[in-house]
Amino acid sequence: MKVLPQGLYCEPGDFFIDPQAGVHRAIISHGHSDHARPYHDAVLGTAETLAIMTARLGEGRAGNTQQVLAYDRPIEHNGVRVTLVPAGHVLGSAQVVLDWRGSRIVVSGDYKRQADPTCLPFQPVPCDVFVTEATFALPVFQHPPARAEMQRLLASVALFPERAHLVGCYALGKCQRLISELRQIGYEKPIYLHGAQASMCALYERFGIGLGELRPVPRPAKRGETVLPGEIVLAPPSAEANPWMRRLADPVTAVASGWMRVRQRAKARGVELPLVVSDHADWPDLLNTIEEVGAPEVWVTHGREDALTHALGLRGVRGRALHLLGREEDEVEADVAAEEPAA
């Protein structure tokens, strides 16, 4: 494996994994836009990931040719055995397992270890080299159960029935997870969506992920009126600063993100109800996963690379920071420009 300007390159297989620019052959771990770039000649991924890419990028930009590879169904390319296994990040997300001449590298992409009703759980694969993200690779990041955070949201709705609750969340993955978690704790009322969230919810339902009744946010009947007191509205994080939110009844502003663990971050953004819900592994889960796969060498990318490599060294594991270009600290979305860049 080599780190080239375009990204991580498998030399014997002659393909890239999640490249940052158009290449001749790419394996895509999942559909977030910092991993699924346009203009590749040939793209391989799960059916869900390729459908997400097509929906977001369009037919002509999501790969000239697409090849679906199901989980745990290996194929061989130029002598390299390629297997996709679940990563537990979002619908269709996969780790890329590469076997060549008796050695195995696992490129995990983005992953989490918490249960998520909208995607298959992370599958640990023993390997010689493990490529891990480091988005939340600091000891302060320890994520509570998502269901407990949704209970906090419902408690706030009950406490302020005269106010709408506007929850900022990413359109792909986080939005659908929040809806599913709410349904699992018995919330049966309609959930209202900003227009940016609707298409991905429809795609999830197409793949069999039931989300219950979803409605668009209505316009007020009269100028100056507000709507949806006592209701939950899901929108991109940037919607909090948009005049669009003025139609909501005195909204309680919430954001669902692992970064809400940092109180100063929530305070700086004026978030009344920070919800610590992440689609990435937290610090304990990063360390436990690395121990579980048993790799003597770990390559670390996009996030707190130095902190994690230092912690690995104390455990006798060789750590290498890849410093891949083009990554963001969390999923990059066209509609979340308010997010800060990676450190």
Automatic annotation (TrEMBL):
Superkingdom assignment: Bacteria
Keywords: Exonuclease, Hydrolase, Ligase, Nuclease
A GO term for molecular function: exonuclease activity
This protein's record includes keyword Hydrolase: yes
InterPro entries (alphabetical): MBL, RibonucZ/Hydroxyglut_hydro, Xnuc_lig_assoc
EC number: 3.1.-.-
Annotated protein name in UniProt: Ligase-associated DNA damage response exonuclease
